[in-house]
Design a protein that fits this description.
Layout: H1 3-20, H2 24-37, H3 45-57, H4 67-83, H5 85-97, H6 103-118, H7 125-138
Helix pairs in contact: 1-4, 2-4, 2-5, 2-6, 2-7, 3-4, 3-6, 4-5, 5-7, 6-7
């Protein structure tokens, strides 16, 4: 994709994400996981699978979620972050920051991001930087 196409795709993807995912906790988890998953500039299948498995394990919290649809939205979101990383990080951190002040939700988002860091078995500097950005958005120490 050329830069203008990448930005248009990213804008459209964020609009679909905004329209399709209304739960703030789910939005924060998806944003945090996506930030970590694409920190190195690509999305490994194991990272996307870990995200869906994390949410499925919390089905008591997300009982009304269509996990298959969410997985597609998540993959789009990661593509949008790769296509427009600067604006994508700002939007993702905005979603994450909405959890600030709720310790239980902050911990769920932080631990979800930590799962993303470990998903492919390698911890890299860009993933650690993404984790620090997530913690800052939550108002937590990394």
């Amino acid at each position: 994709m050329v830069p203008d196409e990448s930005m248009a795709y990213a804008i459209a993807t964020w609009a679909r994400f905004d329209a399709g995912v209304s739960d703030d906790l789910l939005r924060a988890l998806a944003a945090a996981f996506a930030l970590v998953a694409v920190a190195d500039g690509e999305l490994a299948k194991s990272e996307a699978d870990e995200f869906v498995e994390l949410l499925r394990s919390k089905s008591d919290v997300f009982s009304s979620v269509d996990f298959d649809a969410l997985e597609l939205v998540f993959r789009d979101l990661t593509d949008a972050l790769i296509g427009d990383p600067e604006q994508g990080r700002v939007r993702a951190c905005d979603c994450i920051a909405r959890m600030k002040g709720d310790p239980a939700k902050c911990e769920l988002v932080r631990s979800g991001a930590a799962i993303a860091v470990a998903a492919d078995g390698h911890v890299r500097a860009p993933e650690q930087a993404a984790m620090q950005e997530i913690c800052a958005a939550l108002g937590l120490e990394p």
